[in-house]
Amino acid sequence: MELGEVVVAATDIEKYFGTNHVLRGVTLEVRQHETVMLIGRSGSGKTTFLRCLNFLEEPTIGTVRIGDITVTADPLNRRGRRHREHIRQLRIRAGMVFQDFNLFPHMTALENCIEAPVRVKGLPRDLAIATAERLLDKVHLLHKRDEYPSRLSGGEKQRVAIARALTMEPRVLLFDEPTSALDPELVGEVLAVMRDLAHEGSTMIVVSHEMGFAREAADRVVFLDAGRVLEEGPPERILDDPQHEAVRRFLRRLHTT
Amino acid sequence: MSPEPASADEPQIVRDIAAARRRRRLIFVSIFGLTWLVLIGAVLGLIARDFDVAFLGTWWQFILGGAWLTVVLAACSIILATLLAVLGAMGRLSHNPVINGIASLYVSLIRGTPLLVQIFFWFYALAETGIVLEPLHAGIVALGFNYGAYLTEIFRAGIQAVPRGQREAAEALGMSESMLMRRIVLPQAVRIVVPPIGNEFIAMLKDTALVSIISIQELLWKAQAAGRPQVRILEAIVFAAAVYWILTIVFSFLQERLERRLARGDR
Ligand SMILES: Nc1ncnc2c1ncn2[C@@H]1O[C@H](COP(=O)(O)OP(=O)(O)OP(=O)(O)O)[C@@H](O)[C@H]1O
Ligand SMILES: [Mg+2]
What we know:
The structure holds two protein chains of two kinds. Chain A is an alpha/beta fold. Helix content of chain A is 39%, strand content 25%.
C-alpha cells in the first residue's frame, strides 16, 4: 500500500536509567500504512524505545509526535497536570500490544474491548459494543466474546489484546515481542492477524525476532545497537545484505538458535 | 470435588480402592468427632458440680438476645472499617505528602494504641470536649477506626499485588490515574483482599465483647447482666463463649463459600 504522511515522529530520544545510558539519540519517522520492524540484541533498548513512544517510560530528552499531538520529554515535571494530559492524548493515538497480553482478568473479552472506548472516549455503549464485536470478529474470536481471559489460550488472549488496542482507532500500533510468551504452535495465529493488519494498511511498529514476518509484512527493518540506530532499510536488504558486522552476527545467531 | 461414581466397566480393584478410601475417611471423621466430644465433655464434667443448668434454662433467651447486637455491631463496624481502609490505602500510596501524611499518622496512631484505650477515648474522653456519642455509635466508631487501620495495610498490599502490567495496559489505553484505579486496579485488589476482610470480620465478632464496657448491651454485657446478680457467672460466660464460638464457625463457613465464588471466573 502507498505510504502516506508521517504519523509517528520520534526525535533524538535519549533515555537514562539512573546513569545507565540506554537510548543514545534515536530518531524514527513512520509513515501512514507503514510497518516497521525493530530488531537488535537483548538489552539494545528496543523495549525502552517502544515504551518511550507512548511515555510509559518518560524519555530523558526528546520529542514524540503521533498524529496531531506532540509531547516533549519533561522528566522534572512528570506529575504536572498539563504534561500528564498531553501524554494521555498521545497514548490515545497509540495502541500497544504487550508481550504478556495484560488483558483485564476481571472483564470478559468484550468488556476488555469496550472499556476504553466507553470510559476514555465517551462512546455510547451500544456503539462501542458494535465496534468491539466487529474487531473481535476480525481476530476470529467473536465466539469468545463472553469468555474471561483465564479461559482463553495464549494466542487467543493476544488476539483479544490486539482487538482491544484497535478499538481506540489508534494512528499507530506498537507491538513488543507479541509472540514471545506463546507456545510455538500458537505463534502463527497471532502473526497471521498482524500480517492481515499490515496488508490492510495499519501503521505498525513491531519489536520481534520473527524474521519471516519481517519479510512478509514489514516495509522497513531498523536495527538498534546499544541505544542507536545502526542500520535500517527494506527487509530484504537488511536481512540478506547487511552492511554492518554487528547486524550480520545478530542474524547468524538468530538462525542458529 | 466428590469422586466420580464408579461405573460398571471399571475393574474390581478400582472400586475396591475407592471403597477403602471412603472407609478410611469415615473412620477418621468418627474418631475426630469423638475426640472433640470427649474433650468438651471432660471440661463440662469438671465444672458440672457447680453448673446450674436451671439458671440457663431461664436466662438463655435473654443472653442470646445480645448476639444479634454483636453481629450488627460487627457488621456496621466492618463496613466503616472497609471504607476507611480504601481511603487509607489510597492515602498511603499517594504521592501527595499531606494526604500520605494523614493516612500514615492514622495507621500509626491506631496500631500503636490498645483498642480498649481507643474505646475509652471515643466514649468518655471525647465527651469531655463536648462531643457526646451514643454508646453504640462510639462502639462502632472505635471498632471501625481500629480495624480500618489494620485493613488499610491489607488493602495497600492488595493494591500493590495487582500486576504492574495491568496499570500499564490501562495507561496505554489513555486512562487517567483515578479511572484506572477505580476500573482496573481496585476491582482486582478487592478479589485479593476479600479473604483477609473475612478474617478481620470474624476477629471483630470477638472484639465486640470489649464494648460491653461502655454498656452496649451485646452478648457479653447480657451474659454478665444475667449472671452477676445471682452469682452465676460461670454458666453465663460459658454460654456466651459457646455462642461466640458458633458465630465464628458459621461466618467462617460463609466466608469460605464467598471466597470460592469470587475465585470462579477469572485467574
Ligand atoms: N525499568 C528499568 N530500570 C532500569 N533499567 C532498565 C529498565 N528497563 C530497562 N532497563 C535497562 O535498559 C537496557 C535496555 O533494555 P530493554 O528492555 O529496552 O532492551 P531490549 O532491547 O528490549 O532487550 P530484550 O531483547 O531482552 O527485550 C537494559 O540494559 C536494561 O537493563
Ligand atoms: Mg524487550
